[in-house]
Amino acid sequence: MIELTGQTLTIEEAKEVLYNDALVKASAESWSNVEKSREAVEKIVKQKKVIYGITTGFGKFSDVLIDAEDVEQLQWNLIHSHACGVGEPFPEVVSRAMLLLRANALLKGFSGVRPVVIERLLELLNAHIHPVIPQQGSLGASGDLAPLSHLALVLMGEGEVFYKGEQMKALTALSKEGIVPLTLQAKEGLALINGTQAMTAMGLVNYIEAEQLALQTEAIASLTLEGLRGIKEAFDADVHLSRGYRQQSEVAERIRRMISDSQLVTTQGELRVQDAYSLRCIPQVHGASWQALDYVKEKLEIEMNAATDNPLIFDNGEKVISGGNFHGQPIAFAMDFLKIAMAEYANISERRIERLVNPQLNDLPPFLSPEPGLQSGAMIMQYVAAALVSENKTLAHPASVDSIPSSANQEDHVSMGTIGSRHAHQIIQNVRRVLAIELICALQAVEYRGKERMASFTNAFYTEARKLIPSITQDRVFSKDIEAAASWLYQIDWKSFVEKNLHVRKEKISKQ
Prior knowledge:
By secondary structure, the protein is mostly helical. It has helices at residues 11-20, 28-47, 71-82, 92-106, 115-126, 145-155, 170-177, 188-193, 197-227, 237-241, 246-258, 277-280, 282-303, 329-357, 379-395, 417-449, 456-466, 478-491, 494-511, and strands spanning 2-4, 24-26, 86-89, 129-131, 134-136, 160-163, 166-169, 312-314, 319-321. A 3-stranded antiparallel β-sheet has the order 4-6-7. A two-stranded parallel ribbon has the order 1-2.
């Protein structure tokens, strides 16, 4: 059971909720903060104070006063008018993350919603009722208004949801779980949609996928090192300590462990004096991407516990301030940085693929073909990798450098953070497929070299991968292999695989 406080949610806890179906509850202290905040809103309505979004319209309509008897209608109108997202829905896991993050933000007690609103969010989460939320339509400032409005519709018994593997009307799923729809009251509609939870939820899922891929690149690169008989001295600890980047040294250390007992890697001068950059500079390039990933993780964990709606209520309602915490600039930058960092994994991987298939760059069969000329082997797989890498270059263009005014210039600078997070997700899928191609080629290369000479870890990796990806003995529809390899990289419990297959090596290393 994961307990939400509004202050302490971590990425590791979020992973348990998103991928391992951990149940979620709110802490007792957070409920107390929510109740005090709600009392302040009700006092504002009763006293007819002029407070944005509670007794006024929204955006350019902030100067239009709303009668007390119309505050519920105001919230109903807000959600329906703003629920205009378009395009394909976010992946279901992202929708699940939005529920989690919105509940956690509201539990901070600065938003003025009734406890029942948060209870409904948690009920949806624990019942695995996930709103269908179109991906396109958010500018990433004034919050993720359109996406979060589709989430809010479900609380009202409207819209559509994913439930038990099906897409259906929200009211149908709510009825099956005995969940009663809400009538939103003063401030509640605005509190639900004026936040960064769409871009942050997408960013959270991106980071979780990216972290696993970043670790897998090191194992795949280790296979390639063996397939190309790479020089192991490039990974010597002193080289990397001399530069001073922790992440670079950590990459080198992990690769040293993976290839420690390999009979395929070589020493300086044994076959050549030095390797090409795509082999020799793996720690430097991968390490720099890890630096970016660390930055992204830090920003996500701040934003996951942030109050991002407007206005915010402090001091039991004595201080209600219209600010700009809904502006997604921090996450927009983080997602743009993530895009570049992940695109680089594919860039260098594609160069390693070229070295595996190009007969002018190695002593392997041309294009790893079983019958060069009659059979093309991995020739066109390299084309596919090149195409994906080039597509990533377009997607990696920073979204955050763009802005466009909205709401009659009242909202005149926006972050485009949600676009950045969506493009980052596309890049990650492309990177996984490029790595799948490198994996297929590296498996074939080490097979030619003699798998009995592989390191213990890479041999275990080879054995597991070969259960899905057969040896290239005949040209076939390699698209199926690429997708199978990519799916396996996504689904495998990588942490468990490494713990199972590297702990023996630690013991061997310690005895030497």
